[in-house]
Amino acid sequence: RRLLQATEWMVQSGWIQETKIIRQRFRACQNILTNCERAHFSFAKYLQSLLEARLLRLSGMGTNQHSETYDDKTRLLDIGHDTLCQNYMLEAMSEFGKALELSQKHIYQALPRLLSMWFDLTGVCVGRMEKDNSLQSSLQDSQEKANNLISHLIDKVQPCSFYTALPQLIAHICHQHEDTSTIVTSILKRVLEKYPRQAMWALAWLRHSACAVRSSMGDEIFKSTAKKFQRQENMDVHDLLMDSRSLFKYLIDLAKYKPVKDKTNSFSVKLWRGSSPLHAFVPPIKAALSVSHASIEANDRSKDIFPKQVPRMRAFHKDIQLMSSKARPKRITVFAVQPEYADTPAASYELSNQDVGEIHFLLKQEAKGDLRKDARVQDLNNVINRILAGAQSGAHVACQRRLHLRTFSVVCLSEDCGILEWVPNTDSFRNIVTKSYNPQAPRHSRRRRGTNLADFGYLRDAYEKAQQFYFKRGNLKKAALMFEKLCLQKYPPLLYWWFVHNFPNPHAWFEARARFTLSASVWSAVGHIIGLGDRHSENILIDTANGECVHVDFDCIFNKGLNLPRPEVIPFRLTVNMIDAFGPTGTEGTFKGSMISTMSTLRKHRDTLLSVLEPFVKDPVIDWKRNKSKQERGNASKTHINLVAARRSIKVIEERLHGIYNLRNPNFLKYKRTDGVSHDDEDGIHELPLSVEGQIHRMIAEATNNENLVQLYVGWMPWV
Question: Counting beta carbons within 10 angstroms of the beta carbon of residue 329, is it exposed (0 to 12), middle (13 to 18) or buried (19 or more)?
Answer without folding.
Answer: buried
